[in-house]
Design brief:
Layout lengths: L1 H17 L5 H14 L2 E5 L6 E2 L2 E4 L4 E10 L4 E11 L9 E2 L3 E4 L5 E7 L3 H17 L10
Antiparallel strand pairs: 1-2, 1-8, 3-4, 4-5, 6-7, 7-8
Length: 147
């Protein structure tokens, strides 16, 4: 009985060590990797003009901003030219879906925007899960203006 308890304890400890959550920065890198490996265009709201996404920046408040230019200077690599942004807390998880494109729908049923992509269904679902995961690691109360 004692051996069984020790084995169960060791298995539980092993699984809990390996089951660590991603940080905000790791999630941002994960999403950026999806954009780097796929041709993704973002259309904000009802806008018919799509812009290629080269990167995303995510703030601790849950604000996600897409960029379509990458500026490299001597000191740092920075994205510039934002093409759209939204708060992950505005996403309606039941209405935001992937068909042939990924459609972001807010809590009021309005379109936040959509991605016209060459993403496969599995890649689109990975992106969607990463965006929803941000709700668990971001903190809406950090927004000083109560977005």
């Amino acid at each position: 009985m004692k051996k069984l308890f020790i084995i169960c304890f060791l298995l539980t400890a092993t699984f809990s060590i390996n089951a660590q959550d991603l940080t905000l920065e790791e999630t941002e890198n994960y999403i950026n990797d999806i954009f780097k490996t796929n041709m993704v265009h973002y259309f904000s709201g009802e806008d018919n003009n799509g812009y290629s996404i080269l990167g995303v920046k995510i703030q601790r408040t849950g604000k996600v901003t897409f960029y379509n230019q990458f500026h490299q200077d001597q000191k740092t690599n920075e994205f510039n030219n934002p093409i759209g942004s939204f708060s992950v807390f505005d996403l309606d998880e039941k209405k935001t879906v992937y068909y042939s494109s990924l459609y972001l729908i807010d809590n009021k049923g309005k379109s936040i925007g959509h991605f016209s992509t060459k993403l496969s269904q599995s890649e689109g679902n990975r992106l969607l899960k990463a965006l929803f995961y941000l709700k668990t690691i971001c903190d809406k109360s950090l927004d000083p203006f109560g977005h």
